[in-house]
Write a sequence for this structure.
């Protein structure tokens, strides 16, 4: 049930940076990072019937076995067998590694390890896509961009003409804004503590901007005043517990829906008055935008091929693999959105 892939393009995500910085705090090290990528199938192992050498694919950090209760449910994408596990550095089949350097074992990372020209992945974590799709563009769909996009299109589901607030205007938040644009939202309000992000956000359909630091009252009150009682939908993409609470409390009573995307700190607690729930405000969460990787990602690629989804504006830098450290520098300095790393260069 394993596939060997030749990775052609990969990009850097905050998840890679977070675990790279925490490398001294885990026994699963050294490991090959990387999980947002695109490539071709080089060879397949026993039991693999859906893929063949030469297929164009996206490896994904979470999987779809197609057999568990989650995979068979139309409401969930959280596969029991292949959901993300940051502590597992081995293959599921035999609990062993597929990487080594001079005889020294090298662990896997979230089942993908795409900072390697060749990698081995469980077949359930591989999405076969249109061979005509440019891999240097669609590689960004295997993590953050799909997460934000799906949070809006699949979970928030804003009706055409609605008002949507996006909390956090990084790559995931801008993908959520792109989803609101595609859904036909009439107002897309970007909320961020960094006003320098506002101009770029206009490219993704954001029509208005709010910096909470500019007000002496809670941002949810500011948004309620701007929208005659609250926004129709909100999507939180920061991981800040305060932003999560604001995103929920800023939606309109009766029909407002808030979707949480960001990952909070382990000790955070979500606190709001129960009257917000009794007044029919809805709070939801999402994992990978509620996309099933093997089933749904091919259709997301088709949205790009049909020019419904614009990916080029997410790609702000490109470097050869020999200069991968530049990608880390861009990310750590907050410069740009996604840096494409060319594996063959």
């Amino acid at each position: 049930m394993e596939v060997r892939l030749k990775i052609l393009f990969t990009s850097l995500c905050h998840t890679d940076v977070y675990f790279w910085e925490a490398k001294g705090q885990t026994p699963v090290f050294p490991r090959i990072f990387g999980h947002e990528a695109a490539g071709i199938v080089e060879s397949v192992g026993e039991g693999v019937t859906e893929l063949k050498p030469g297929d164009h694919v996206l490896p994904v950090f979470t999987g779809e076995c197609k057999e568990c209760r989650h995979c068979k449910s139309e409401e969930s994408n959280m596969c029991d067998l292949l959901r993300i596990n940051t502590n597992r550095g081995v293959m599921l089949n035999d609990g062993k590694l597929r990487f080594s350097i001079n005889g020294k074992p090298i662990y896997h990372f979230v089942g993908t390890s795409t900072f390697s020209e060749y990698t081995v992945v469980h077949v359930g974590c591989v999405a076969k896509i249109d061979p005509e799709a440019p891999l240097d563009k669609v590689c960004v769909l295997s993590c953050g961009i799909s997460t934000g996009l799906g949070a809006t299109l699949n979970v928030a589901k804003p009706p055409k003409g609605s008002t949507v607030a996006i909390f956090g205007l990084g790559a995931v938040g801008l993908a959520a804004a792109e989803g609101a644009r595609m859904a036909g939202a009439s107002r897309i309000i970007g909320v961020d503590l960094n006003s320098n992000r506002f101009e770029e956000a206009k490219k993704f359909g954001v029509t208005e901007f709010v910096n909470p630091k500019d007000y002496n009252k809670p941002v949810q009150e500011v948004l309620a005043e701007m929208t005659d009682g609250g926004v129709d939908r909100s999507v939180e993409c920061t991981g800040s517990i305060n932003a999560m609470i604001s995103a929920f409390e800023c939606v309109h009573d009766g029909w407002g829906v808030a979707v949480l995307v960001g990952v909070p700190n382990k000790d955070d607690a979500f606190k709001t008055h129960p009257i917000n729930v009794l007044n029919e405000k809805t709070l939801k969460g999402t994992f990978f935008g509620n996309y099933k990787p093997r089933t749904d990602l091919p259709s997301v690629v088709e949205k790009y091929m049909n020019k419904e989804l614009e990916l080029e504006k997410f790609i702000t830098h490109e470097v050869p693999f020999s200069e991968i450290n530049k990608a880390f520098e861009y990310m750590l300095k907050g410069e740009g959105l996604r840096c494409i790393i060319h594996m063959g260069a």
About this structure: The first strand starts at residue 2 and ends at 11. The chain has a mean pLDDT of 95. The chain has eleven helices and 15 strands. The two ends are 30 Å apart (CA to CA).
